[in-house]
Write a structure and sequence with these properties.
By secondary structure, the chain is α+β, with helices and mostly antiparallel strands. The protein is built from 8 helices and 6 strands, in the order βααβααααββαβαβ.
Amino acid sequence: MTRYIMSASDYNVTNVFLRGYLAGMRHVTGGQYSRLLESGGLSQWSQSYPPANLEVAVKGSHLVRLNTLIEEAISPDLFSLFLRNLGREFGRTTAGFPGLKASVDELGPVKTYPALLEVIKLIVQLNHQSIEEHIELALTPAADGLLLIYHDCLWCSDHSPSQQPICLIIVSFYKELLYGLLRHRYNIEETSCRAVTGQGDCHILIQ
């Protein structure tokens, strides 16, 4: 399996990605929003969001730091809700990204896993443009689903050990995005998380 030199902290996070993150963060953290941004070194966006473009805004280390601060500031249940809601919002926004729906429609009906794999490839390409996450795609050995392998996952980077997978944002992102693009609900779960295993990869199964 290919390994990558770049770590989650070194990812280049673009304005459009940070904009979506901050919108979800403000909704959950409320009155603590400005203080958390200041603590995370992002106080310049306390009054307005970054523009919706692909220029680099911050490094992944800023989001890793913000994730930690938010988790410390709110209850575990509310933090889980924050991640789910943020993923849904990202999914809805990405479904409306200019040209994505047209590119998906050009692929034709999505009735097989290989066809779905082509859709996911488009999504991963767009994702890499906005945040540089390294995602490997494959059919499952039994060809009964798709596997997305997140190398050096941003969402559990530097997280303390957990008894259960914590990358809820990824799961809710794909659920909402695929519904927005294909009008179909898929079963999506994180089957392996670095916060649980201590390994560097997180596995997302789509069926």
